[in-house]
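TICKET: design request
STATUS: open
ATTACHED STRUCTURE:
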């Protein structure tokens, strides 16, 4: 059974990821763990299979969109988690597509037999070309001299329709499945020689992990180059700042000298203020009383001159 896990995060998942998760869960319940009625309807009705195929294509487009959005995540930890989750969903999607192809093969077993035969006969090896000519002859004579027939000819000599019922779940049509299988892992093209059965979904995780590692490596190299460029730019800016400081060194020296002169002037003014304060308050409290007495005497003299002197007649 395929387990589908949602990418947990601090916030709520976006609508695209939520729709993809729900769609994969629904397709998983239809294709991987269906009830008897649903499975029978999928095997019998081609329209139902086409509907499921359309849903798979839409899910693939959503997954591609999420993969593009995951490349723009700046946080490396969140980006790695998102890419790992997308790889799991890609594996689930590939498994669902393979299950749909298995249902198509079960619905048309004679097409699988014909396509498999064409695949085996279509190898570009000399021995198989000779075998293909041998099969096309209507009445092969025992006296005809040919190279030894390889082990691939045995299934064609003793094959009958019931024998293809057992490996039907692992056979794929030449038009779609084998091309995608060779695209994901070219080493699986040797399966067509009849030595081992087809296993198209097993190498897909390895290929996907390798592509993910390659993508991460390229991003790491890009980040390293960008950091180096930023460091070089910072070094150039620091050199320019040092040069500007050297150019403004004379101005700074003149400003420092001006501040020293201002400090000396302030010290001289403070000394003068202290001298004045000493002159006014240097005699103590007795001098202050004498000052007040003189002020009072002057006031009395002024009053006498103004008010008393005019009344005196000589």
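STATUS: resolved
RESOLUTION: sequence designed for all positions
ATTACHED SEQUENCE:
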């Amino acid at each position: 059974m395929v387990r589908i896990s949602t990418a947990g995060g601090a916030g709520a998942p976006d609508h695209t990821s939520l729709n993809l998760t729900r769609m994969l869960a629904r397709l998983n319940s239809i294709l991987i763990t269906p009830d008897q009625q649903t499975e029978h309807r999928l095997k019998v009705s081609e329209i139902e299979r086409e509907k499921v195929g359309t849903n798979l294509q839409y899910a693939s487009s959503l997954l591609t969109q999420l993969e593009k959005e995951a490349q723009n995540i700046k946080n490396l930890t969140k980006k790695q988690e998102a890419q790992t989750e997308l790889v799991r969903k890609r594996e689930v999607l590939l498994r669902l597509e393979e299950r749909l192809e298995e249902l198509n093969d079960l619905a048309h077993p004679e097409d699988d037999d014909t396509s498999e035969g064409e695949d085996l006969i279509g190898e570009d090896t000399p021995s198989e070309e000779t075998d293909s000519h041998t099969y096309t002859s209507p009445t092969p004579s025992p006296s005809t001299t040919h190279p030894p027939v390889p082990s691939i000819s045995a299934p064609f000599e003793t094959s009958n329709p019931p024998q293809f019922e057992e490996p039907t779940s692992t056979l794929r049509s030449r038009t779609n499945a084998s091309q995608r299988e060779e695209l994901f892992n070219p080493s699986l093209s040797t399966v067509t020689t009849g030595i081992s059965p087809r296993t198209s979904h097993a190498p897909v995780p390895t290929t996907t992990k390798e592509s993910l590692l390659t993508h991460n490596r390229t991003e790491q190299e890009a980040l390293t180059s960008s950091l180096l460029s930023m460091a070089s730019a910072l070094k150039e800016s620091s050199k320019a700042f040092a040069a500007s400081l050297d150019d403004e060194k004379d101005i700074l020296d003149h400003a420092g000298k001006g501040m020293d002169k201002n400090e000396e002037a302030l010290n001289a003014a403070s000394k003068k203020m202290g001298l004045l304060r000493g002159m006014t308050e240097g005699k103590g409290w007795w001098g202050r009383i004498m000052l007040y007495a003189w002020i009072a005497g002057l006031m009395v003299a002024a009053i006498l001159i103004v008010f008393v002197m005019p009344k005196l007649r000589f």
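CLOSING REMARK: The chain is about 70% helix and 0% strand. The two ends are 142 Å apart (CA to CA).
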